[in-house]
Amino acid sequence: MPSVWKLRLSMIGTLAIIIGLSTLVFTLILSLIGVVNILVLGVLVVAFNIGQWLISPYIIDALYRTREIPEDENPKLHQIVEDLSRKSGLKKPRLMLAQIPIPNAFAYGSPIAGNRVAVTSGLLKTLNEGE
Questions:
Q1: Is 19 within the bounds of a domain?
Q2: How far apart are CA 127 and CA 14, in angstroms?
Q3: Which of the residues 50, 83, 84, 119 has an alpha carbon 20 to 30 A from that of 35?
Q4: DSSP symbol at 69
Q5: 96 with 61: CB under 8 angstroms?
Q6: pLDDT score for 69
Q7: 93 is in which domain, residue-wise?
């Protein structure tokens, strides 16, 4: 099975788990307060998941205390991200820095916040340009 299909299946599985867990939580809360209505449950689950998806970049920024890296601060890193974006056919995301000693990088975003790629200070200290 091609790796793209494995990635898509794992993304669908993750989405199913998230929706399933939020449905379970809302079902428990509604049954405890005495409201067992499938329509109310459906509206709450959909609203919660859409809201979470839209504001999650702001939550990630707050948790990791990220800040945007100006291009003049690290032009090589900006060039690497721009080259990778061009090769992938994607628009260049905003480049963020998380002041965490653990070497890591991750991508996140939403239609409201836009696309972002975050690197940690630990990653910048650990890897050389080729890596």
A1: yes
A2: 30
A3: 50
A4: P
A5: yes
A6: 95
A7: 67-126
d(CA 57, CA 47) in angstroms, rounded, equals: 17
Pinpoint the alpha helices (H) of 1-131.
3-32, 38-64, 75-88, 121-126
For residue 71 the two structure tokens come to 């291009």
Three-class DSSP category at 100: coil
Provide the CB-side half-sphere exposure for 16 (13 A, CA).
Answer: 6
What are the pLDDT digits (tens) for 30-87? Answer: 888 887 778 887 888 888 888 888 999 999 999 999 999 999 999 999 999 999 999 9
Q: Is residue 20, in this structure, part of any structural domain at all?
A: yes
Distance CA 22, CA 25 (A): 5
The two three-digit tokens of residue 63, written as one number: 């948790």
Q: What percent of the chain has pLDDT over 70?
A: 97
Q: Token pair of 41, please?
A: 């449950």
pTM for this entry: 0.72
Domain with 78 in it: what CATH number? 3.30.2010.10
Q: How far apart are CA 23 and CA 2, in angstroms?
A: 32
